[in-house]
Design goal:
Elements: H1 2-25, H2 28-41, H3 51-71, H4 75-99, H5 116-137, H6 148-167, H7 183-187, E1 197-206, E2 212-216, E3 228-239, H8 260-264, E4 269-275, H9 283-298, E5 303-307, H10 311-320, E6 327-330, H11 333-339, E7 347-352, E8 355-361, H12 371-408
Parallel strand pairs: 4-5, 5-6
Antiparallel strand pairs: 1-2, 1-3, 4-7, 7-8
Length: 409
Amino acid sequence: MKRFVIPLSRYILASLFIFSGFVKSVDPMGTAIKIREYMLAFHFDVLTDIAPWLSVLLCGAELLLGLLLLTGIFRKTAAYATLLFMSFFTLLTLYILIASPVSDCGCFGEAVSLSNSATFIKNLIFTSIAVFYTISIRHTTVSARKPYIMVILLACFSFGIPIHALSFLPVIDFLPYKTGTNIPQAMHIPDDAPKSEYKTTLIYKNIKTGAIREFELEDTTWYDSGTWEYIDTKNKTVKQGYIPPISHFNILDRNGEDRANEILSDPGDQCWLILPEYEKLSNRSLTNLSEFSRFAATENIPLLTFTGQDPDMTTAYLSEQGIQTTACYNVDPTTLKSMIRSRSHTGVLFIREGTILAKWNATMLPSLETTKDLQTAIKHNQSRTVFFYGFLILCAVALIIYLIRQRKL
């Protein structure tokens, strides 16, 4: 029985770490945003600038640890590291459960969202498994073979994915504004979609005793105005209805009018410059955007700037840097950061009839001179996804072959 349970515990832990590490590695900026939230909550504000690289380190280490558990390489080291990892995050999630400094721990990136209580219970269970596994193998004989080459390959794979995503953009995007999304359709709520149900509670104060009491709408006791004084109304969601992938998307002009419908219904091609904060633009981004804006002007493709700051100041700054845009609008900064998951959250989206056909990080914008170059860049953007999935399949096959060979030795 024990010979079955010990490997099972290892594979369970490996599955957790591989899944958790991978879904965070493909979008390291999502984890970086969560790390910044933790730093601000614990008053480590000075470290927020290095959050993206801490994210790469965390995501890569977690994925590598899962692969080491799966392959059985450096089994004791991986076991102790797993126990240390789980113990730390169990204590952290216990504090989060009590103090609630953040709403979501970010354990599975943007792929899966768990409540603080569910996260703590999950960590408690897996920490128990890690304790059992570590105790069970502490007296096992360590193999004399040291597959360092395999470890190096696994490390390159584990850290290469988040570094690639941070340098370019996530190939697998769990957020609503991924390539291929039609924004109007993602905002649409079907007529037969389930509606949210709410429970309304009235809060009154007893004028004579000062006691606070909550009343259901059906309870007519609160009609007595000589006894009860109205304080507040509380609405609680009893049943959550259908929530579209994109629930709010507003594009505000200088007068505060929403131009989203007008812009999204434009039948022509558009390019959106996503720019939450123009002060964070690097010299390389400025050069790339300047070249791209000249191409857009030559080909008569509108280049609309979406910013979280003052449109006039943003336009003036871009003009000084040689970047000419068609118009500048205000968009919620959180929405902008969901569109471009890079360190500066700055880049360009190519839009056709409300559909995102391609997106580029500002530091990795393609060099374009003609519309043909743009079509080639869009195809290259799409082929990068195919190549990435092919690469993952190849790595999975190689790993399976390695595991089969290990069992035969």
